[in-house]
User: What shape does this take?
Amino acid sequence: MTPNDSNLWDSLLQGKKDALAKIYSIHYKRLLAYGIKLHWDKELIKDCIQDLFVKIYLNRKNLKPTTNINAYLIKALKNKITDELSAHRKTESLDVFQFDLFKDDSLTELFTISDENLIEKEKLKQSLRLLSHHQQEVLYLRFVQEFDYNDIAGFYNMNYQSAKNLTSRTLAKLRTIYFQF
Amino acid sequence: MANNILPKKRKFSNIAEHIAQLIKRTEREQYNGDEQNVWENITRRIEIEQKGEFKRRILHIASSAAAILLLAGISIAYICNKGSLNESFTTNLAGNLLIDMNSDTLSNILLVTANNTITLDNNANLIYNSSEQLDFFGKNTKTGYELNQIYVPKGKRANITFSDGSVMYINGGTTVIYPTIFAKNKRQIYVDGEVYMEVKRDEEQTFIVQTDKLNVRVLGTSFNVCSYKDDEETSVVLVEGKVEIETPEHEKHILIPNQRLSSGQDDKISIVNLDPALYTAWTQNYMILDREKLTNVLRKLSRHYGVNIQCDPDISVEPISGKLDLRDSIEDVLKILRVTTSLKIEKHDNSFYLTNQ
Assistant: This one.
């Protein structure tokens, strides 16, 4: 969350196009980075991001204020991708668009780049693979997209305390698996 | 034992923090592809919507914008036909050549169906719709579930819209074998030559472009396949999207954008990163060359213009770099080569011969 988020969002709600442009330039990469972990097809994700920004601008009168634009957009993108995929592929199994860190090839590479931490990284990678889609996503949102517990609560429609418990339980689980290697 | 736990926990925290930072950095540095294009589409769509045009129209523009974003280029090039392939790899499509077309004697585009052989004009446009009709130039010909073969000679072009909506642009000197209606679980065609494809996305019906040396598997994207039998190297260049390539030994390779996979005379596979524009420029009617051997340049020009161009063996490996506009006449293009490389050009009938000056 940046202190400017509320103001920037307010400008957007007032219909200022440069606010939309600023939000886009700050969040495009982060949205693409998240989307690519839901579905490998980058073009589809780009189409969804495009639809999302058009829709946000045209529907701005119906939007609520937010203090974390990133968390708002990430959740909206997830809904958009889920709608898009379930509308077109009724028979496709849900797994295809569940969160998976390792759908993203550039991250797979990152774990295998040789450095002094290579063995530890490999252990962490194997541990992350043993987490569920949901557990991976919680940790990703918390530690990479920097969601706070309020944001996580909003993302999963739960209360603050549950979001906090979920995050610490998931982290503890990852640590337990990691120690077993 | 208690002494062990703290350092272990600290080690875990350190590595987890390290990875989180690495991921953040990777995500900041990458994923910038098409940022500008996507933004332009967004502003265009908003403007149109605000002008109060019909919703239908917007959907149309949105989908054509999506089609542009789907652009992916794959270029496969052989530099000499090397050896025969593993039989299990060359599945039956290639064995279904209806007529073995001799590329040097034919001057018209030929479409061979189960019952008919039809001659088509240059730039012919064939459309298969799902009710199994073939339309071209207003004529309708009833077709069933059968294999067709189209041969486009050097210097000519044609395009086909398949029953699933995928579009294929066919370059000169190319044979394509394809079913009039695709099978339920996969869409497979065979290509000897060069095509540019815009494949309709359908995850349950993989699209496979089969060549003599490699199979290219896609779910839905646009790409360029160039695989002439008389070229010795096969290569696949990916601009956008994702493809899987299978070798005759059933090795599978996945390409990410800006990568080129090549398989040379020794069938060794190598993958390098490069600028894909070098391999996809032909679709925009120009050719970008980066230290390309003269003999390869002349072979490409010869296919494009449908003329015979030879050069003296002692200059055949001269490296050529630069950009050629393929809308110019062949004479003009060769003159540009002459300016940059000091060649002498002789012309006899429809053949050119280049020697050292």
Summary: The CA atoms of residues 113 and 121 of chain A lie 9 Å apart. Chain A touches chain B through 45 residues (CB under 8 Å).
